[in-house]
């Protein structure tokens, strides 16, 4: 990873050439105003290296140098934060404004960075009400600039735009958790919370995300084969904002944000509905441009499938994402998103283990190897205790939130209510499901067997065992996605059998039959043909070919 002084072009070196500012130069005036004087005093205490960094960053921002901005954002900002602001906040935007000629768009982006940095300083604690209110106000201004068209003509790295939306929802989570923990708050703090329900209000959060999606025109752009519906000329009456990369990305990432929020509040059907227009082709979809976004899409989509009891679809979603891990492992190891992506991968592995337990299905060998390395033999889960599966669910599930304000008249902690409700619902499913894999394994050994005999083998009373058989039959049918559809990850509402094992009861005898009528060889052959086509496109140097031919001739 490049250091603070390195990169495709050193920002230190370029600064002196382009701005002419050296050590000791200051900007500003009007120090008679106390606020201005305080801002200039804060600026004067700022170290020279962060000053030069911000000036150079702003120059690249104004020149639309996206690739260099990406390096400055992802690498240099982190390095300087570690060096100068490891335990303190960056200077205020009021002070920096005198350094960057009061550049409002740049200051909005600077404040977004500094608020995000501020949240990292607290670790497991939480910012104050005032700090969280200021962060909310800055996001309102920032997203308002997008909605008012003030970002037309500007360009930003895709990773930064993703982090904006991702951090926006993260800070919403923090607020919901903070507001619901009342026991340790003073009467003054509770009074402030009671009077400020508009801060991080869930309706406003959702409205901003929906407004960004609509303003960007991203859905028509995707449905129109990645082409804008209107004109790409900003002066035209039918100007289409989807012709601008910055609006395409912010709109697309807002769709992913809606997916995440709906999962956090437990509305899993709506979570999948917002993905209807997404393109899941890995060669064209925008989420592949940012690794953290890529895994977030599959994580929340797979989790929504799992909570809707569509374990086969969830397993396929998780398997697709985990198969991608091996392809990017080497290139991603140096990314600032490395830890975040690794956590998502571990969570998806845990959820995939649950899905396999409840619904046996084919898993790629490389993914199965990851599962065994992380959790050992998956078969042990099928005979394990409820606490084992529940532990995996608690570790791998998102941080659920209660979007509504708590009852401020009853002083208690409500921040775990949403998580407890989801765990309770999942626990009810676990109790129904845990015995089913064992029944399924016994049925696979017979073509016909008496109900009483099978109940005796499992040491369960016959009447109770009949209810388990009916439960197995009921849960062997689920809504499944059509893998041949345009959007194979989320489409499909037809209820179909999910198990290869079929059975029926006639005169107290269970008759077992294989529900799988044909074996699918097509997918295997298609993959092999595709690999051959890729290999045939590889250009082999002529000298290598002749060298190999000569070696063969001498044998």
Q: Briefly, what is this?
A:
Helix content is 60%, strand content 4%. The protein is built from 25 helices and 5 strands.
Basic shape: globular
| Strand order in space, largest sheet | 1-5-4
Please give the largest β-sheet. 3 strands, antiparallel
Task: Report the order of strands and helices.
Answer: HHHHHHHHHHHHHHHHHHHHHEHHEEEEHH
GO cellular component, one term: eukaryotic 48S preinitiation complex
Protein name: Eukaryotic translation initiation factor 3 subunit L
GO molecular function, one term: translation initiation factor activity
Main location: cytoplasm
Protein described:
A hairpin with a 2-residue loop joins strand 4 and strand 5. The protein contains 25 helices and five strands. Among the domains are: about 1-120, no CATH class; about 285-400, no CATH class; about 435-555, Arc Repressor Mutant, subunit A (Orthogonal Bundle). The strands form two sheets. Strands 1-5-4 form a three-stranded antiparallel sheet. Helix 16 (about 340-360) crosses helix 17. It is globular, with a radius of gyration of 28 Å. The chain is mainly α. It is found in: Cytoplasm. Its main location: cytoplasm. Keywords: Cytoplasm, Initiation factor, Membrane, Protein biosynthesis, Transmembrane, Transmembrane helix. One of its GO terms (cellular component) is eukaryotic 48S preinitiation complex.
């Amino acid at each position: 990873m490049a250091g603070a002084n390195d990169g495709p072009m050193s920002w230190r070196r370029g600064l002196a050439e382009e701005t002419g500012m050296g050590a000791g130069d200051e900007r500003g005036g009007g120090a008679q105003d106390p606020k201005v004087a305080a801002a200039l005093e804060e600026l004067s205490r700022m170290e020279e290296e962060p000053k030069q960094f911000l000036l150079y960053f702003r120059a690249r921002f104004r020149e639309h140098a996206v690739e260099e901005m990406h390096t400055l954002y992802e690498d240099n900002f982190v390095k300087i934060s570690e060096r100068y602001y490891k335990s303190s906040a960056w200077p205020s935007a009021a002070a920096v404004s005198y350094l960057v000629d009061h550049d409002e768009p740049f200051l909005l982006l600077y404040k977004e960075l500094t608020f995000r940095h501020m949240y990292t300083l607290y670790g497991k604690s939480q910012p104050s009400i005032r700090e969280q209110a200021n962060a909310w106000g800055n996001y309102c201004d920032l997203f308002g600039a997008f909605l008012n068209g003030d970002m037309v003509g500007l360009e930003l790295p895709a990773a930064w735009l993703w982090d904006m939306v991702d951090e926006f929802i993260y800070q919403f989570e923090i607020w919901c958790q903070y507001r619901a923990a009342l026991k340790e708050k003073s009467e003054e703090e509770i009074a402030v919370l009671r009077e400020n329900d508009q801060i991080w209000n869930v309706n406003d959060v959702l409205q901003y995300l929906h407004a960004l999606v609509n303003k960007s025109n991203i859905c028509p752009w995707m449905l129109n084969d990645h082409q804008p519906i209107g004109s790409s000329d900003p002066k035209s009456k039918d100007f289409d904002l989807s012709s601008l990369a910055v609006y395409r990305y912010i709109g697309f990432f807002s769709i992913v944000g809606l997916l995440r929020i709906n999962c956090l509040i437990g509305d899993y059907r709506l979570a999948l509905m917002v993905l209807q227009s997404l393109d899941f082709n890995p060669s064209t979809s925008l989420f592949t441009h940012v690794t953290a976004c890529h895994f977030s899409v599959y994580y929340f989509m797979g989790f929504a499938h799992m909570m809707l009891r569509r374990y086969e679809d969830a397993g396929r979603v998780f398997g697709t994402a985990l198969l991608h891990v091996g392809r990017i492992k080497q290139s991603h190891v140096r990314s600032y998103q490395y830890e975040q992506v690794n956590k998502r991968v571990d969570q998806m592995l845990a959820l995939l283990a649950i899905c396999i337990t409840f619904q046996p299905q084919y898993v790629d060998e490389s993914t199965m190897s990851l599962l065994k390395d992380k959790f050992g033999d998956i078969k042990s889960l099928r005979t394990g205790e409820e606490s084992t599966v529940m532990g995996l669910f608690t570790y791998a599930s998102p941080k659920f939130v209660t979007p509504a304000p708590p009852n401020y008249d009853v002083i208690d902690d409500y921040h775990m209510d949403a998580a407890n409700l989801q765990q309770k619902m999942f626990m009810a499913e676990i109790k129904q499901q845990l015995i089913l894999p064992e029944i399924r394994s016994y049925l696979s050994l017979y073509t016909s067997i008496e109900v009483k005999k099978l109940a005796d083998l499992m040491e369960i009373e016959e009447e109770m065992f009949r209810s388990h058989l009916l439960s197995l039959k009921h849960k062997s049918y689920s809504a499944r996605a059509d893998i041949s559809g345009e959007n194979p990850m989320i489409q499909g509402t037809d209820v179909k059998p999910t198990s290869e094992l079929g059975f029926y009861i006639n005169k107290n005898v269970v008759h077992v039959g294989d529900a799988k009528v044909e074996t699918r060889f097509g997918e295997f052959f298609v993959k092999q043909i595709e690999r051959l086509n890729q290999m045939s496109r590889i250009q082999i140097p002529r000298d290598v070919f002749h060298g190999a031919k000569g070696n063969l001739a001498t044998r």
